[in-house]
Design a protein that fits this description.
The complex is a heterodimer. Chain A is α+β, with helices and mostly antiparallel strands. Helices cover 19% and strands 24% of the residues of chain A. The longest helix of chain A has 31 residues, at 2-32. In chain A, 36% of the residues are buried. Classes of the chains: A alpha+beta, B alpha+beta.
């Protein structure tokens, strides 16, 4: 409490000091001004209280903390408008600190200067910058409204819900973040109308304030916002991609809105064009044979997406295009004008301008350039020049000379190219961008990377100590700077199930067969596989090869011929795959009805081999003994089964 | 920059759309030459890279979990038994420079790196037993898939298994270009057809093309199924009892006419036997897979319903 009281006292003292200062300044200005403004106890600061019916005169700040400065012509315009309109007053945006029940009378503030006029103490006003510019244009009810007998809530919603901010020369104030009190302000304005008509009292009249709506204004829906956004034509850029034979593919790329559809059909007049997604941010516009005409005359395409939002793309026609490399794009894309020192630039011009273009490029020190026509992929009636690298600046001609785009300006440009660009300004570690600086670099200017002097390498790129290490970096030259980051991300790659079949799932090289764990490779002659337990029986499918391989749901002990009784004793063998002792417990157990058939076939396979007298491989004592054990088990189990029946 | 850098980029991004992949290919592999390595079924560079990345198990395209797009698979050391040579491990899936450096450092001399066009480097490590490779992968923090080719083949349905296909109505309208796959006595080719013919015939494989996108429909027993083009071809081959696979036991190579290149996953299983994609034999006009053990060739033939090798 003590601290709070102390802070309040300090704030109050500062406010009083500010009021006194401003009053002094105002007095001074009043002496210079022949028609001083006076609003009595109320001040006009909210020149434009936005309403649903009338657009605001000034741009609305994005948030309650942002400010806007009213330019002089704008102020004059508003002043004129306000003179004509019904004069209403809006109370000053004032915030009362908690605990102060009866704030001091409000001072007068000139809308032009924002300075306090005579009388009263300086309130803790929101939205006033150090320069005295108006910061917020939201009219707010003041604590003085009680004196006017206004039906205003002493604490309107949102009025005191704010964040503490500190202005450069002002004490901390509470600034409302949300909630509009325009309605209350308008009421104030209405009540003050008569008072404002008093001649000689007002030099500045604010624009009219619309009456309040009965219900709070609904927030603009994303759909509406998108719709409004879509009224602005989306960007169209030109892209030139070359193959190794020098053949150029020229495309038109249209900006793709966020979450734009994969394919869009757009119309220009009666003609329809397909826009196919190209990357995440662009569409490739398939204009076919219209490319030449579109480039020279320009075009506008319109489409409506599935949610009904109107989209349009516009390209202004011109006779000369300059294209240059840009990370995120293949080849070269449209740019504003030719830059010095870059060798990835392409100039596309109409065939009729070739001589003029060549002359300007020659002046810029580009050296001999070859003109490539339709045979190299240029649109009909157009010609392009590759690897255009100006070495000197040229002054721009006066007027709208279309050749000005070919005259490099001396301004310095820091370029980050190549490397493995990931997104934003981030490059992958090990593949940093190549840093180059174009333009007229003054002799004394120095290129610095992370505050280290950069060294120009033989390839024309700048480097400095640790310029390619992980982290954020800044390149600086001649007052210009560019930032980039090197990152070594390690995403968490998880396995999923892109292919899910009855046999199992596959994801990359990972395959998980269902109900099969043990890999076995056996000759296709021994296609019957037997496990240690009666009933562990697997018949390999027919294969075109001499060997069968695959996964079996149990550990295979024996591989025997599929039809032992009809096999050739001289060639076929019983093969031991894994030496596992038989499960002798099976002799005494009773088999379930569902497993009896498999158990019967397991026994039958062993007994058939035994009856046929097939040899065991490998031909050693252990294998033979193991086979004998299995034979005995099979015979005993078979007898048990015969007693209970196989079905 | 080339396919290695493209794989790094894909690995960092993890997943994305098809247009994003296409533009990334064009940006990272500049001056894409669409005329080199021309095969009878030539595709643009981004399609060829897509096939290669998919066959080498680095990236999945247009599958469940990455519909109309792509997604990088986790890094895996795919093991395969090499008859008489122990075991081999092929590094598949996502890659980053640091990961490769560490893996090569741990593998030492046993690691081979093969640089080939239009595909990321083949990184292969040989050992006398699979257990050694498992230990290596563990220390490098990479997952292991033992017997990868057989494991993949074990999951795949057979070429004539209609249960895995989705019954779908045939497209209609005039915008479609329709072709029918024709199996003649000595040749196989796509011939011009029509929507009406596709509806009329009870059997056959049809290719519907619109906006450079293929859709394959198989007519079988009067029903229409949307199938993969290659699977549909092998279905027809099985139906007509035609053999197109050729296995050379002496060189352990499996050859198939280029028009009958196996479906992606089966090709992946074959490619993981050696780590290499098949090469195109100009003389015989066949694609040839190397280092394929006989049992794997037999397994592949079994899935494709090819009765003889």
């Amino acid at each position: 409490m003590v601290i709070l009281l102390g802070a309040l006292t300090t704030a109050l003292a500062l406010a009083i000091w500010l009021v006194a200062t401003r009053t002094r300044r105002l007095r001074k200005s009043r002496t210079e001004s022949p028609a001083p403004s006076s609003l009595g106890k109320y001040t006009e600061v909210g020149a434009s209280v936005s309403s649903n019916d009338e657009p605001p005169l000034c741009p609305q700040p994005q948030s309650g903390l942002e400010s806007f400065n009213v330019s002089a012509p704008e102020r004059n315009l508003r002043k004129e408008e306000s003179d004509k309109s019904t004069e209403k007053l809006v109370a000053a945006p004032c915030v009362t600190l908690p605990g102060i029940s009866a704030p001091a009378p409000l001072p007068e503030v000139s809308a032009d200067s924002g300075q306090t006029k005579e009388g009263g103490e300086q309130p803790l006003q929101a939205g006033r910058s150090a320069e005295g510019h108006i910061e917020k244009n939201v009219g707010q009810q003041t604590a003085q409204s009680e004196k006017l007998e206004l039906p205003v809530s002493p604490n309107p919603p949102g009025l005191f819900e704010g964040t503490l901010i500190a202005g450069p020369q002002e004490p901390e104030v509470l600034v409302p973040q949300s909630g509009s009190v325009a309605g209350n302000a308008a009421d104030v304005g209405g009540k003050l109308e008569d008072e404002r008509r008093m001649p000689g009292r007002f030099t500045y009249r604010p624009p009219s304030v619309t009456p309040p709506k009965s219900r709070p204004r609904a927030a603009a829906s994303p759909r509406t916002a998108q719709g409004e956004q879509s009224r602005q034509p989306l960007e169209v850029t030109l892209q030139a991609v070359f193959d190794r034979y020098g053949f150029c593919q020229i495309r038109l790329l249209g900006q793709r809105p966020p979450d734009g559809e994969q394919d869009v059909e757009a119309r220009s007049g009666r003609e329809a064009f397909v826009l196919s997604a190209y990357g995440d941010a662009w569409y490739e516009i398939d204009v076919g044979k219209n490319l030449s005409a579109f480039l020279s005359e320009g075009f506008q395409l319109s489409a409506r997406d599935s949610s009904g939002v109107q989209l349009s793309w516009r390209l202004s026609g011109r006779d000369i295009y300059v294209l240059a490399g840009h990370h995120g794009f293949a080849g070269s894309v449209s740019t504003t004008w030719l830059r010095m020192g870059r060798d990835d630039q392409v100039v596309l011009c109409k065939a009729g301008h070739v001589q003029e273009v060549l002359a300007v490029l020659e002046q810029a020190g580009c050296g001999p350039l070859g003109a490539y026509d339709e045979n190299y992929g240029a649109p009909a009636g157009w010609v392009f020049f590759r690897r255009v690298k100006p070495l000197q600046t040229l002054p721009h001609a006066s007027g709208n000379d279309i050749l000005n785009v070919l005259r490099p300006l001396p301004e310095i440009e820091i370029e980050l190219n190549d490397g493995l660009w990931l997104y934003d300004s981030i490059w992958l570690a090990g593949f940093p961008p190549k840093i180059s600086v174009s333009g007229d670099i003054p002799p004394h200017a120095e290129v610095r990377i992370d505050n280290h002097p950069a060294v120009l390498q033989a390839n024309g790129k700048f480097t400095a100590p640790r310029w390619d290490q992980d982290g954020d970096h800044i390149v600086w030259c001649g007052g210009k700077q560019a930032k980039y980051s090197i990152a070594s991300p390690l995403p968490d790659w998880e396995s999923w199930q892109p292919y899910d079949y009855a046999g199992g799932t596959v994801c990359g090289a990972i395959a998980i067969p269902r109900h099969a764990e043990h890999l076995v490779t056996v000759p296709t002659t021994n296609c019957m596989l037997l496990g240690a337990r009666p009933g562990e029986f697997f018949l390999c499918g027919a294969r075109a090869s001499t060997e069968w391989t695959g996964f079996v749901p149990f550990k295979v002990v024996w591989a025997v011929p599929g039809n032992a009784l009809h096999s050739d004793r001289n060639h076929h063998r019983v093969m031991l795959i894994t030496a596992i002792s038989p499960n002798l417990l099976a002799e005494t157990r009773t088999f379930r009805r569902t497993e009896r058939l498999a158990v019967w076939r397991w026994c039958q396979a062993i007994l058939d081999c035994r009856r046929k007298g097939l040899a065991v491989r490998p031909d050693d004592i252990e294998a033979k003994q193991l086979w004998r054990n299995y034979s005995n088990l099979a015979r005993n189990v078979w007898r048990t089964l015969r007693r209970h029946g196989t079905k | 920059m080339g396919p290695n850098e493209l794989l790094f980029w894909l690995s960092v991004r993890s997943a994305g759309s098809w247009p994003q992949f296409r533009s990334a290919v064009e940006e990272i592999i500049p001056e894409g030459d669409e005329k080199s390595n021309k095969t009878p079924e030539a595709f643009p560079i981004y399609h060829r890279l897509r096939f290669n990345f998919q066959s080498l198990a680095h990236v999945e395209f247009d599958a469940a979990g990455c519909e109309d797009g792509w997604r990088v698979t986790p890094p895996v050391l795919a093991l395969t038994r090499q008859p008489g040579r122990g075991a081999a491990g092929v590094l598949c899936g996502a890659r980053l420079p640091e990961m490769i450096r560490r893996f090569e450092e741990l593998a030492g001399m046993a690691c081979e790196r093969h640089m080939l066009p239009e595909q990321p480097d083949v990184i292969r490590v040989m050992a006398s037993s699979p257990e050694l490779l498992v230990a290596l992968a563990d220390s490098a923090g990479i997952r292991v898939q033992p017997d990868a080719p057989v494991a993949i083949l074990s999951c795949l349905p057979r070429a004539d298994s209609m249960a895995v296909w989705r019954e779908a109505p045939l497209p209609f309208g005039r915008d479609w270009k329709v072709e029918r796959f024709e199996i003649r006595r000595r040749s196989y080719r796509w011939t011009e057809s029509s929507v009406a013919e596709a509806n009329r015939l009870m059997d056959g494989l049809f290719r519907f093309t619109r906006f450079h996108t293929y859709d394959y429909f198989l007519r079988a027993e009067g029903r229409a199924f949307k199938v993969g083009g290659q699977a549909g071809k092998f279905f027809l081959l099985a139906k007509y009892g035609r053999q197109v696979l050729h296995y050379d036991r002496s060189t352990q190579s499996l050859a198939v006419p280029v028009i009958f290149r196996p479906p992606y996953l089966l090709e992946r299983a074959l490619a993981l036997c050696s780590g290499f994609l098949p090469h195109y034999d100009l003389a015989t006009k066949m694609v040839v897979y190397r280092e394929i053990p006989e049992e794997i060739a037999g397994f592949a033939a079994h899935i494709l319903r090819q009765s003889g090798l």
